[in-house]
Amino acid sequence: MEKSDIQLGELKRAITRLKEALSLPKDDIVRDSVIQRFEFTVELSWKVLQRYLKASGISETLSPKNTFREAAKLGIISDAEAWLRFIDARNLSSHTYKESLAEEVYASARAIPPYADQLIQSLEREA
Q1: Percent of the chain at pLDDT above 90?
Q2: Is it the case that residue 127 has pLDDT exceeding 80?
Q3: Taking 50 as the threshold, does the pLDDT of residue 4 lie above it?
Q4: Which of 122, 108, 119 is nearest to 18 (CA)?
Q5: C-alpha pair distances (Å), 89 with each of 31, 42, 52, 81
Q6: Distance, CA of 31 to CA of 77 (rounded, Å)
Q7: Which residues are known catalytic residues?
Q8: Contact at 8 Å (CB) between 52 and 76?
Q9: Number of H helices, E strands in the chain
């Protein structure tokens, strides 16, 4: 696999859709939509980075957190700790029937766009 084979289109669409939902006035339905789109964004970020790392010669299977740590070592992302918090929030999202957890995940979703944009920019430079 070549680095140029890493397709960013799905991730770009997920980020755009998340930003669209975040731009709406918040209510329960919008919050739930934001949470779902946040999940997609985190998952696709992980999958894209896995493909990138594989193309870079790092072929062992990496957990989401290890993937982001490796990406930070390579300079693809600048703040691994932020991404680790996003992974934790993504993992909480399966428990969003609890109001307090839903609000916590929503707050993480509001924070991710600049990190996701930076990820895309880094991967586009590398491709």
Answers
A1: 75
A2: no
A3: no
A4: 108
A5: 14, 10, 23, 12
A6: 27
A7: 90, 95
A8: yes
A9: 6, 0
Q: pTM for the complete prediction?
A: 0.91
Quick one: which of 78, 53, 75 has its CA closest to 64?
53
| 88 token code pair | 């934790």
Domain count, the chain: 1
Residue 54 burial by Cβ neighbours in a 10 Å radius (0-12, 13-18, 19+): middle
- Contact in structure between 46 and 64 (CB atoms under 8 Å): yes
pLDDT in tens, 67-89: 999 999 999 999 999 999 999 99
Residue 127 tokens read as: 């491709």
Residue 63 lies in domain: 3-126
- Whether 100 shows a pLDDT value over 90: the answer reads no
We report the CATH number of the domain holding residue 51 as 1.20.120.330
